[in-house]
Amino acid sequence: MTPHLVLEHLDSLVKPPGSLGRLEDLAVRLCVIQQTLAPRTTPRRVVLFAADHGVVAEGVTAWPAEITRLMVAAIVSGGAASSVLAASTGTDLRLIDVGVAGPGLPDGPAHLCRKVRFGSRNLAQEPALTVEEFREAVAVGEEQAADAVAGGVALVAAGEMGIGNSTPASCLTALLTGSPAEAVVGPGAGAGEEVLVRKRRVVAAKVASESHYLADEPETTIASVCGLEIAAMAGFYRRASASGLTVVLDGFIATAAALVAERLWPGTARSMIAAHLSAEPGHAAALAHLGLKPALDNWGMRLGEGTGALLLMPILDAAAAIVTRMATLDRAGIRTDGP
Amino acid sequence: MTPHLVLEHLDSLVKPPGSLGRLEDLAVRLCVIQQTLAPRTTPRRVVLFAADHGVVAEGVTAWPAEITRLMVAAIVSGGAASSVLAASTGTDLRLIDVGVAGPGLPDGPAHLCRKVRFGSRNLAQEPALTVEEFREAVAVGEEQAADAVAGGVALVAAGEMGIGNSTPASCLTALLTGSPAEAVVGPGAGAGEEVLVRKRRVVAAKVASESHYLADEPETTIASVCGLEIAAMAGFYRRASASGLTVVLDGFIATAAALVAERLWPGTARSMIAAHLSAEPGHAAALAHLGLKPALDNWGMRLGEGTGALLLMPILDAAAAIVTRMATLDRAGIRTDGP
Q1: For this structure, is B305 an active site residue?
Q2: CA distances (Å), A26 to each of A270, A307, A323, B12, B29, in order?
Q3: pLDDT of A232 strictly over 70
Q4: Best residue in B30, B311, B322 to probe A by mutation, most A CBs within 10 Å?
């Protein structure tokens, strides 16, 4: 199933060729990823991975670290943006605590505790994760993708909650795309100018000290700047992609995890559809590096929690419906030799 | 309910202020139109109005006029893009034949025949509609809005099917926004360069001959360049807006009808949410004239049939869900005096 074959099918339907614009691009992408003219967008699941970040000690965030724990509780109790959008779009939502500091919530139907450690170390002072910890977090993500596959899910996304995680995501984006550190650092969840100056300094210093090692020791280098939830998302993508699931990519942090996955397991991004272009300045470079074009490209979303991916879900339903349910020009009695 | 009050509410929810970007803009718009912090997006209905256009005789279209009739049949039988998107987004779809040339289909639950005449006259040669015909078509639209109100519908859109209708829509856009005719004429459903040259000439000549009369005789002038489905859409907007319904605005033709409504019944556009920016070049000027900002602003859609409005429906569900169902920062135990 090539893009050309899908376009040929779309052009046979009762509409002027290309007249549904970007909805047709999404239809093509779904068909090519799933290798069928009858793509599925349900059942679907968004898995959120949550963890804390030692680098918060450097004053690189607008919100204090304990917000991670409070937001995990809000998500699990159904009041967070992700919970509400999951319900609105008919999407199963799960949250996996892969390393929130302090005790976790008891396991439930939509929440599991799989802490690798109580947050990553302060990447400004030492490696954030050892390779072993990184691999353990990757395995948590892989386990969740395997569970989705076993549950008959057709389409997945990963999201995150982790105060401070735009700092490791910025480091990863700079390292893995080759973009200058200053160009990829943004306000995240709302950093002011003073915080932003510290964040830029931390990212630039870390990237400068690590970039030499990337080629020879990619996994160690990635682990040293990574977060547990980012590692888990990368593992989730790896296994989901290898198992033939369609992966909807959320915002800046989710895409940093995709950069990790594509670097360590090339080809992972071929299963991906980019939901949106985040307000975070490094996102465009990361998506371009993966060869992905965001569907919603100036919506100014910057919340995380899989919210951008969730918003795209009903649009993907519409794209799939166009391909599978529209009548052909032929059947409508419209001659295709003109105009 | 002012935008400021809605924003205050949105900023009290468990997310960084503004972090849902354009979804928050839509939430504000819904709340302000409906004057509530609990906006409704269902039940909803899209009403398509279909008619033919005598101006097709001038060679201004890519497709022959009989396509209107065939597409009406495709819509009613459920195979058109609008039918499929209505089903995918949980939207009631109706089609009203307000002036398709030739005999109409028998009335059905989702289809009514309310022909004012068998298509408008050739606007290049004579007035397309008399004022009486224009008013009759407006009344057909008003009747449909009244029916939606009676049916408890909260949110509506109007769409259209009518080969040739981007020519009257271009005339209306130029006349009512003051934009130059050349700037508002585009390929519509797929006109090539030769057709486009003729279309530009027809629109420029008509606008030049009518523009003097607009100030003194707006209704006569509008009728002389209008189409029956465009008049019906204008009437639909008028009554829907006056009855407190939220109106989702589709593409170029639908917006030309909104220009008509706003000109004749000022304030109508205050109930409107613009779904998308069409690929048609005159659409941006029309939306700007109405003070509306399109939600999907570079999706390149140009099909009509209400498809752009339909695609926005689940996004509006998400916007309403955010406002009504998210927990507050306070309730989540997050102090609002920081960061």
Answers
A1: yes
A2: 14, 18, 10, 35, 27
A3: yes
A4: B311
